[in-house]
Amino acid sequence: MKLFDVYPLFDIEIVRGNGCYTYDSHGTEYLDLYGGHAVISVGHSHPHYVQAIKEQAEKLVFYSNSVINSLQQRLADKLGKISGYDDYQLFLINSGAEANENALKLASFHTGRSRVISFSKAFHGRTSLAVEATDNPRIISPVNNNGNVTFLPLNDIDAASAELAKGDVCAVIIEGIQGVGGIKIPNDDFLQQLRSECDKYGTVLILDEIQSGYGRSGKFFAHQWAGIRPDIITVAKGIANGFPMGAVLISPKFAPTYGMLGTTFGGNHLACAAAIAVLDIFEQEKLVDNARQVGQHLLAELSQMPQIKEVRGRGLMIGIEMENPVKELRTRLLMEQHVFTGVSGTNVIRLLPPLVLTIEQADEFLRRFKNCLNN
């Protein structure tokens, strides 16, 4: 059997990781400034994380959600405390797309409406309604294109207000910081006004924090820079440091009923053990503060480079926009300088490193990046 060939691959096999470094099958070391799409939050193979998974796997990997799993409540308690949402409810699933599917479904149940507002360049996943809310026609199949979603310009409150006033919008879904869209940040005042307009028209505000959450922006959630509280928050990526997991944080104004949402694998014992270990490390190593401090250093240094058109971001979620396409630059960074980075569109290098990145490692990246720009 052949693999279904949907990924363009670099000719590199990564077989091991440690902190902010990965190693290929030939033993070559790479500085990881991408974290596998923002997934690696506490570093590769952190000893506490590895031990927690090992101990749980030796006891029980999985049983169904038809019985009590106290690890789920432990995770909910820790996540509520560290995030500032201890009055919210937690629903555990397996991925970011699944988190957004359930959030949108819950909003529709709650309001009895079916239309969704999303924004230009948004990315919310590749399944059903999540992909319909993604602003990329190339990945939306005919069966997903059901006319449920209206796309609006980011940061245009007048356009959002006009659509909300029609009274048929169940949910507004917006990323805390757009990742795939090029590290575009919603203005704080826009988010504040959007919160107010959603309240005015009885519309559910969903913050997709799948890439921008879990400390990456220098606050636990990126929307917290604006001082708002959404009705629903979706998370995945860094929640379990590479173990497949997602979650929905749900306002207390939503009343659950049996059968409303469901999952087979979501919130399984091994996933919960991994996610609890991640939050242990967040607290012990103050990773949200570290993301803010190291991110500020990187942004300040990058903004001084004349070759860069614009640098954007918060914390360790950074976009470096160049005048020209960055495909060759990214390849040189990887093959010549042994640095993993990502891209957004054609002209943006995307940095999403593990949140344990040090100032010294950030400076090492800057040195290698300058080598590519100057040679």
Compile the SSE list and pairings:
Blueprint lengths: L13 E5 L2 E4 L4 E4 L2 H4 L8 H13 L10 H14 L5 E5 L2 H16 L3 E5 L8 H5 L16 E4 L4 H8 L4 E7 L12 H14 L2 E5 L23 E4 L10 E5 L18 H17 L1 H16 L7 E5 L2 E5 L5 H9 L3 E2 L1 E3 L3 E4 L7 H16 L1
Parallel strand pairs: 3-13, 5-6, 5-7, 7-8, 8-9
Antiparallel strand pairs: 1-2, 2-3, 4-10, 9-10, 11-12, 12-15, 14-15
Task: Describe the protein in words.
The protein has 375 residues and is an alpha/beta fold. It has two domains: 14-33 and 286-374, Alpha-Beta Complex (Aspartate Aminotransferase, domain 1); 47-285, 3-Layer(aba) Sandwich (Aspartate Aminotransferase, domain 2), CATH 3.40.640. Helix content is 35%, strand content 18%. It contains eleven helices and 15 strands. It has helices at 35-38, 47-59, 70-83, 96-111, 128-132, 157-164, 188-201, 269-285, 287-302, 327-335, 359-374; strands spanning 14-18, 21-24, 29-32, 89-93, 115-119, 149-152, 169-175, 204-208, 232-235, 246-250, 310-314, 317-321, 339-340, 342-344, 348-351. The protein has a seven-stranded mixed beta sheet, with helices on both faces. Strands 1-2-3-13 form a four-stranded mixed beta sheet. The longest helix has 17 residues, at 269-285. The model has no long low-confidence stretch (mean pLDDT 98).
